[in-house]
């Protein structure tokens, strides 16, 4: 329990889950480096929230499909922070194209962003942790589709399955250095990515989800903050679904079941 994280990097920290995670980690006493891809103003707003909590915030642009150069951004942020104790891989994309209609370029863009870029940035952060003497936390934001597929998401599903497997392997290899690696697998979360900017998830009905609603980004951030904390010192190689019970129904149910009839016998 001697691990005391002081510096975290969160990719795609400009909105949604990334913003909530950055703020949660700042609230736990960490300085935060965060990245943005297209929304620099959003990243600056997140940075201000971090600073309002009395922590340092630095930002940088990151395109995880810029391979392998995207790893340099992680080194720049780590240098500005004085190191990295916690790395959150949150950057990602999707497409929603049926398999038979999916062109190769779209496939490559999705897989490059969600898996190849994750490999490069996670590896760069892990090397920094080991060089600094070990101990650290690596956490990937995957998806319930790390575990179960969804129609129209072949590239996304393949990338998220791969990222989940990568994290499990990292957990095996980096344990000797005192570095843990885990995934957090969100279900539907009310964020700009799901078309629910500034939406109160408690006011949205999802009959196909046992808890009956989408999640709040802060509910994901709370689990991430735990995994980044000293309290999670013996947790590694795990994937934590945070989905309101969606996986118990199947991911299609969240959007395709339109009544509560299933709740009865």
Class by alpha and beta content: alpha/beta
Q: What integer is the average pLDDT?
A: 95
Highest-level CATH class: Alpha Beta
Largest sheet: 7 strands, parallel
Whole-angstrom Rg: 18 Å
Just name the CATH architecture: 3-Layer(aba) Sandwich
| Total number of strands | 7
As for the number of domains, it is: 1
Question: Which percent band covers the strand fraction?
Answer: 5-15%
> Can you write the helix and strand succession as a string?
EHEHEHEHEHEHEHH
Give the CATH topology: Rossmann fold
Helix content: 40-55%
Write a compact overview of the structure shown.
The chain is an alpha/beta fold and 265 residues long.
Describe this structure in words.
The protein has 265 residues and is of the alpha/beta class. The chain has a single domain, classed as Rossmann fold. 40% of the residues lie in helices and 14% in strands. It is built from eight helices and seven strands; from the N terminus they run E-H-E-H-E-H-E-H-E-H-E-H-E-H-H. The protein has helices at residues 16-27, 40-52, 71-81, 104-131, 154-174, 217-227, 246-249, 251-256; strands at residues 7-10, 31-36, 57-61, 86-89, 136-141, 179-186, 239-242. It has a seven-stranded parallel sheet with strand order 3-2-1-4-5-6-7, sandwiched between helices. Helix 1 crosses helix 6 (217-227), helix 3 packs parallel to helix 4 (104-131) and helix 4 (104-131) packs parallel to helix 5. The mean pLDDT is 95.
